[in-house]
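Supplementary Methods. Inverse-folding protocol.

Structures were first reduced to a discrete structure-token string of length 348. This string, shown here, constituted the complete conditioning input.
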């Protein structure tokens, strides 16, 4: 079931960053009005502070009201609801500014409201508030849709990675297990459990986060199955420099596709096989994961096998960037007979 918040056309203003943005926009309007070279009298400090207080009050009142009324407003059609929201913001501004103007008149206090008539002041503030709210909501609407599209894209790419556990791998694994059932039932049972873990992770590739420990265990399960098929040509060396953040949340299927590429495009292409080295270490406030394996020169291959590996790496890089932001990096390069893929993610 989809998240109801993603179905609402009205942006969520019940978050502190959104409230801060609305207050900032209100204060920006005051600054622009105070600095505008319109030939009117110069604003004093008291005028600026009074106008700022009114603008922030209006922004807070409108934001809190739209936050509280978001669910009933979201039930309206988008076009009608937008008109209602903007009209409600204008009404709130008219009431608030009318109260302020009336108080200044009743107290006989001079200020930035005394030079402007009641209706001009009230309707002018209401109009400006409606315009600012309309622009802000439009920006938040576009930002929310962009974020939802990014999430959907990341999930779709995770689903694509799920499909990369290829059918022929399943068929080969099942045939291998069938051949082991009578000859070595213990190894066959272990292979079935590893295969089960692998496909359970694949089916949940687009749902939630995994952990560093779970990603390593999944890679071990995959390598265990492949070692039964490839035999002694496949050697694996894990280098874990403790302490490591084993509970660190990570996107699913980050490490397994890299070791799969190391087997398919590296070890299986070399008659003598080789050793896949997987190292994990912390460097300052970053976690670094490296997968290194012997591989033929990509430029000398008869078939464009590098395209599949490149697709998986771009896929993983995209999901890491979505999950961790610009602090996450992924690089891959072939050099002197070895291909190395590095993942760097920030630690909390």
């Amino acid at each position: 079931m989809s998240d109801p918040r993603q179905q609402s056309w009205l942006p969520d203003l019940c978050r502190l960053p959104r409230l801060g943005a609305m207050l900032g926009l209100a204060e920006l309007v005051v600054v622009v009005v105070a600095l505008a070279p319109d030939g009117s009298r110069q604003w004093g400090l008291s005028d600026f502070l009074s106008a700022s207080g009114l603008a922030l009050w209006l922004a807070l009142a409108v934001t809190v009201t739209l936050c509280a009324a978001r669910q009933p407003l979201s039930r309206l059609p988008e076009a009608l609801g937008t008109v209602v929201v903007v009209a409600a913001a204008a009404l709130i501004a008219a009431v608030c500014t009318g109260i302020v103007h009336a108080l200044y008149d009743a107290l006989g206090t001079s200020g930035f409201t005394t030079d402007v008539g009641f209706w001009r002041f009230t309707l002018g503030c209401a109009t400006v508030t409606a315009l600012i709210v309309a622009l802000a909501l439009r920006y938040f609407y576009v930002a929310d849709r962009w974020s939802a599209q990014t999430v959907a894209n990341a999930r779709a790419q995770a689903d694509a990675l799920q499909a990369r556990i290829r059918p022929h791998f399943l068929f080969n694994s099942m045939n291998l297990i069938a051949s082991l059932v009578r000859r070595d039932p213990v190894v066959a049972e272990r292979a079935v459990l590893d295969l089960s873990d692998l496909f359970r992770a694949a089916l949940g590739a687009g749902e939630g986060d995994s952990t560093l420990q779970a990603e390593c265990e999944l890679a071990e399960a995959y390598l265990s199955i492949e070692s039964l098929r490839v035999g002694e040509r496949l050697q694996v060396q894990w280098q874990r420099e403790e302490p490591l953040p084993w509970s660190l949340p990570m996107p699913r299927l980050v490490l397994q596709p890299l070791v799969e590429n190391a087997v398919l495009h590296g070890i299986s292409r070399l008659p003598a096989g080789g050793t896949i080295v997987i190292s994990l270490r912390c460097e300052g406030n970053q976690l670094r994961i490296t997968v290194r394996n012997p591989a033929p020169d990509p430029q000398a291959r008869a078939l464009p096998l590098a395209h599949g590996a490149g697709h998986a790496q771009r896929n993983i890089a995209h999901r890491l960037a979505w999950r961790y932001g610009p602090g996450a990096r992924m690089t891959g390069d072939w050099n002197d007979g070895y291909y190395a893929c590095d993942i760097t993610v920030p630690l909390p």
